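Good morning,

Both structures are done.
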Amino acid sequence: MIRLGVVGHGGRISSVISHCLRAVEPDIRVVGIVDPDEQGARSRLADCDQQDVVFYKNLAQMVSKAKLDGLCIGTRCHQHTPYAIEAAKYDLPLYLEKPVAINMKQATALEKAFEKSRCQVVVSFPLRVSPLCLMARQLIEEGAVGSPEHILGVNYVPYGTVYFDNAYRDFAMTQGLFLQKATHDLDYMSFLMGSNIVRVGAMATWGRVFGGRKKANLRCSQCPEAESCLESPQNRKYNYSGGDPNDHPCVFGRDIGTPPNMNEDSSSTIMEFASGVHGAYTQVFFSRRDAQTRGATVSGYHGTVRFDWYANELVRVRHHAPFTDTIKAGSGMSHFGGDLELARDFVGLIQGKAKSRTTVQMGIQSAYVCLACKESAEKGRFVNVRQVGQ
């Protein structure tokens, strides 16, 4: 049996445990939890964990008493770093949710904490290890494009309202959607190019779609415009436009924040890689339904490889021969199959059979890139990206 301790037993980490970790190793038990909301945390536990789980006041107490084999951190974003820094003191395999840090002070402190730590970490970067991304990387390594000279990444998010009508609307917690969302994508783009991002020039648009002048703390059930508003529960259901179909906070409220201290409607960056090539990435949070797309196009002199996770499809184009290949992938997998790959890595780490493919250093490097993008968008200039170990 694998004895698991969890800090912050919320919806995301409980789903990872139930649907991914247990798919790899059914004999996993959550034996310890640190979470101030004991009732909510307990409601997310599987039946097999209900009887024996113990709630602890803090991480140190849980580590000393629970005889853990592994640790998961799934708190709110702003708490990932302090708990990870504490976990660095223990020789326990750690599953750490992203982003690993939300500001430069946190990121540099986290890097310092792990410089000499024996704690092995699996950071929740499922896109990097998803089957489509790995296939694209394999083709690039085999010479499908020649030397990779350019990459374009896109993410038209069909569920973007979650960042405006959910707890993620709290800018103090997220620090914007480069850190909250792009940390995934900029990481896998670096992976595909085989090179770190060293300089960025970013832009963001705030408050043109979401946010506005509606009173603070307004909910749909209290709003006289609910019948006509496209974001009301009844109209989301009627229009099949997605989002929370229940009563929720107003996405046009003043309490979402004011630019730039709020989540952006969309944001983009151009980036320079250490190899000398460049690329671009854009993310849009007001797209809906079939507008969804997420993936990348990598080009070189000899060919192009592009893929889209929502279409579950990869295309290889030969530039100098009349052949194009289309590869279909399986569907219905969490984070396009990446969550299951991370689960295999984490269980393998606990059992001493595997190494992490998404290390804490990779998580920190992605945070440095996202922090540079945030600074660039706010200040309107190019920003050099801090590098781990320098």
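Second structure follows.
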Amino acid sequence: AGACNELVASKERVAAAIAAARSRLDALSPHLRDVLKATKPLQECLALRLDEKRDEARAASLLPPPLFLLYANAAAYADVLG
């Protein structure tokens, strides 16, 4: 019974830590959006395709694992070879 109580207490501590971390991450989201919005002119000036890459990665994450692996390898080769 003592070990069970310890495990329950440990589980509750971990759940509280996860909730706190999730709260901090949720609070960061608007700030990150603001940073990306503020750097938009710089990205355009330097011809960075960050928005396109982000959209592509978001779409690729929906692929089944074998196709995602193929995509990841092809993207890595494209980055290396230019």
